[in-house]
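=== RUN LOG ===
request id: a7f3
mode: sequence -> structure
chains: 1
length: 151
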Amino acid sequence: MRPRLIHYLREVFPINIAFFLTPKKDLVYLTTTCTMRQALERMEYNSYTAVPLIDERGRYAGTLTEGDLLWKFKNTPNLTMKDTEKIPLKDVPRRLNNQPVRIYAKIQDLLSLAMEQNFVPVVDDNDVFIGIVRRREIMEHFSKKILEQPS
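=== RESULT ===
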């Protein structure tokens, strides 16, 4: 990024990523040991097209999308809805690779990822998943700051 833009962003955006954080306790996420069936039901119930995955130690393990589940159905001959109760999410290939950001990373790192991802997973120094930052919250904050600028 250009120095002038970085200076502007520092004025517009808070320095701490935690300002934008939606904590894990307020999110729908899945573990890699959940089944395809559980994922389908939870995603349908919440009307989500993508959810964060965490492993058995609480670390961010990727993002599961509706497309991942659809491709698994397509590429698994004779797979029925009943069979999805036996397939753990760790066995579902993922096509989307949402990169996480560390909670103490620079705001520029968050912005770079948010330009490419609808949400950015946030992890601590041990890669433990602690929440997400939604692109929408960043854009709302940015829009509000722009509107507050004198004409």
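=== NOTES ===
The chain has five helices and seven strands.
The chain has a mean pLDDT of 89.
=== END ===
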